[in-house]
Amino acid sequence: MTSPLQKKLKISDSSVVTANRTWDGVVVYRTAAKGWSADLADAAIVRNSDEAKALLAEAVADDVGAIGPYIAPVQIGEDGKILPGNLREQIRRDGVTIDLPV
Amino acid sequence: MYAYDEIDRTLVNERVSEFRDQVQRRLSGELTEDEFKMLRLQNGVYLQLHAYMFRVAIPYGTLASNQLRQLAHVARKYDRGYGHFTTRQNIQFNWIKLSDLPDALADLAEVGIHAMQTSGNNMRNVTSDQWAGVAPGEIEDPRIWSELIRQHTTLHPEFSFLPRKFKIAITASDHDRAAIKVHDIGLRLIKNEKGETGFEVLVGGGLGRTPFIGKTIKHFVHGRDLLSYIEAILRVYNQYGRRDNIYKARIKILVHELGIEKFSREVEEEWQHIRNSSLQIDDEVIEDIRSRFIYPAYEKLPHMPDELRQAAADPDFEAWRKNSVAAHKNPGYSIVTISLKPIGAPPGDATAEQMDALADLADKYSFGEIRVGHEQNLALPHVAKRDLPALWKALDKLGLATPNVNLITDIIACPGLDYCSLANARSIPIAQELTRRFANHELANLIGRLHINISGCINACGHHHVGHIGILGVEKNGEEVYQITIGGRADESAALGNLIGPGVKFDEVADVIEDIVEAYLALRERPEELFVDTVKRLGVEPFKERVYATR
Known about the structure:
The complex is a heterodimer.
Chain A: E1 15-21, E2 27-30, E3 36-37, H1 49-61, E4 66-76, E5 82-84, H2 87-94
Antiparallel strand pairs in A: 1-2, 1-4, 2-3, 4-5
Chain B: H1 6-28, H2 33-41, E1 45-47, E2 52-57, E3 62-64, H3 65-78, E4 82-85, E5 90-96, H4 101-109, E6 127-128, H5 143-153, E7 168-171, E8 185-191, E9 197-203, E10 215-222, H6 226-240, H7 251-258, H8 260-274, H9 283-292, H10 306-311, H11 315-324, E11 325-327, E12 333-338, E13 349-351, H12 352-365, E14 369-372, E15 378-384, H13 388-397, E16 412-413, H14 428-437, H15 441-447, E17 452-455, E18 469-476, E19 479-486, E20 498-499, E21 504-505, H16 509-523, H17 531-538, H18 541-548
């Protein structure tokens, strides 16, 4: 399987690095402080391929903290708020779009 | 029910201890994710969008009431209070923590449940007819043979690192409820002219990115040769199956590329080497397995008891009985299908409370036994007819008496983009909207048998290719788009559906399905002509015209 670091990266817009926390699988985002946060607002924003590669490399190196890191698109609102860049990432942040059975 | 022995219990317990150690080493950093991934997959642990997903095997779809209670316990203690029954007689928990998994597995092991054969490139849970052992006209209980294969293949090193996952299904009835033609190996239990038990063997069926209907590779394999013949197939697959391209690694691709004749010759040659080996099954082995399937002590009961006669005056009961109750091999009993498709709810989900209550009802009315079908419904296989009215009332209170089995709202759907990391589009909200559109029971009955299958990506976990109406979600320019096929079926006349035209947007899917159904009602020759038969008679064109004329 191709390592995420070997994949070609084309970053033309704001992006973050996201993964799932190892011990419980919760969605997390890589922060500028070289850690992970479950809050998208804390995510480090990258805006070009070099920045994205560097952030991803750092995330991949933290194999104990989180698994499956990848670069995900985000949108920056007028108020500076970070928003998910597509439906998949919106669901990962907000949870399922249906009512749970309980 | 099948009574496991000490060997089974030891195996399952040792597996838990082994996985507990692996999880500890993973959490401490001793194992990397690359090293751990295969180990967790071999224990049914996937990573989904929001959390880990834990898939638990229900071999050949048979559950005891204490096992169902333990599944409820796992849902309640380690997850969010519900589970999702899948299209391959498994149950999935969607929110489990890796750190809790060893304890969850240990709790399940107490009642003989495990997660082996639910993931990874190995032999998967061997599935069977959910009415096995009770269906009228069945040749014999196919679970005996499912269990034989389960015992032989579980943790078998030769089948643990296959090119890709491998699925076997077995049926012993004329009507195929196990979808054997869309499995890697499909087995149809038959008798030869001497009255000996054997199997028609199909190979190379499957759905996903490249769907194929299985082809008959041998018309009769004697029961004593079943393991050697399956092993011969797997050896050929192991030798020639592609490992360089995940999309071309399933046996269906190998069978297609070699051609069934050449593939068959390869298998035959291999088989001759091993046919008379220790793989030949002694009658005593089969009899030993057969003896461990414990059947209820049925009473001799009337075919039409007073309780049933009186309840027939209640139209709601009658609607449920006609829809959900099937004939049993013993005339005083019935098979009751329990719809896990209430209107507006996710298909196949059951809460812990429902599971507990169903376990109690199984104890009271079905000799403590529950079955799981690939249609994502449950069944109580041994219900005395006199108990049907009381059972119906109890199920109704639990929200489990929706009389929609095999009707348009009995939808099969994968978890889709709400849960699955592979999905491109949502499945469950589409299913929910469709059940609301067709909630009227008279309308659903007027339409008749109609299976809708929904998949949120090309991997086809919702078996959309073989839905009478199949809905496939894809992603196009950042939007969810749904392709509609019609004319598929998963039974003994299995066929792949045909695309009716360009994909439609999320908000249009229910309208399109309504158009297709209205076209069918106008086009069918008589009320008894099923949707799928009308499509077979007329092709997709009239439906296509109806759908796209105004779009």
